[in-house]
Amino acid sequence: MDHGKGSPQGPVIYSAVHTDKDMTGIKEKTWEPWAEALRKMAMHPEQHIDTLLQVTQEAVVLHDKFPKGRKHLLVVSRQEGLDCVKDLNRSHIQLLKNLQALGEEWVQNLLNEDQSLVFRLGYHSEPSMRQLHLHVISQDFDSPSLKNKKHWNSFTTSFFRDSKATIEELETTGRVQLYGDEHSIQNLELRCHRCQSTQGNIARLKQHIRMCKAPFPSDLVHKGYLYTWK
DNA sequence: GTTCTAGAAC
DNA sequence: GTTCTAGAAC
């Protein structure tokens, strides 16, 4: 008795045809699907009412899905085609001032709830997700979602561009200088944002920052980059 | 961006 | 042995 033809069990061939080039052969930045989440919310806020804290003409406000501090909000610009600080010029100064003002309102709300918090407002030099977004993040960095060097250094090195400094830089030079990329900040040491001591790994760093009571760097205080309860 | 995990580092 | 890092994900 014959066995019928079994179904072919050959190896599955995937044709992973991905190209970074358009028909002119010029390389374009390609955004992965996961990087579109913020843009979708900014462009169609009515479809995300449940996750948005606030919707204005210019921005949407939401909780960061993976907060790196006790409080971590995003103020996302709704301007089409504006993805990162590299795209900014003088025409965006008023927008940035409005995003900052919105962020500051939320800082005030959050400080009213917990007067022990300290906040910093700023942008990542090279964001992972599309659509310009301002981070509003408490400086305890007390969060299970803070897990690796990239997380830490993206908020505590010059890779983090303070909102006020970004606006001032646009006003004086018309551009925003970037400091490092997502790859380079992984090779930086882990330094406490308060006492500046270096820690061997993320586990030790997190242990350390739970205890460290050193004052914040005075230049951050004097420049008004830190927001505290008054 | 996160999750998963192999293998390096301890 | 456990902890930690870093690269792939179809």
Automatic annotation (TrEMBL):
Residues 156-211 form the Aprataxin C2HE/C2H2/C2HC zinc finger domain. InterPro entries: Histidine_triad_CS, HIT-like_sf, Znf-C2HE. One of its GO terms (molecular function) is mismatched DNA binding. GO terms for biological process: single strand break repair. GO terms for cellular component: nucleus. It comes from the Eukaryota. It holds the Pfam family DcpS_C. This is Aprataxin C2HE/C2H2/C2HC zinc finger domain-containing protein. It comes from Ceratopteris richardii.
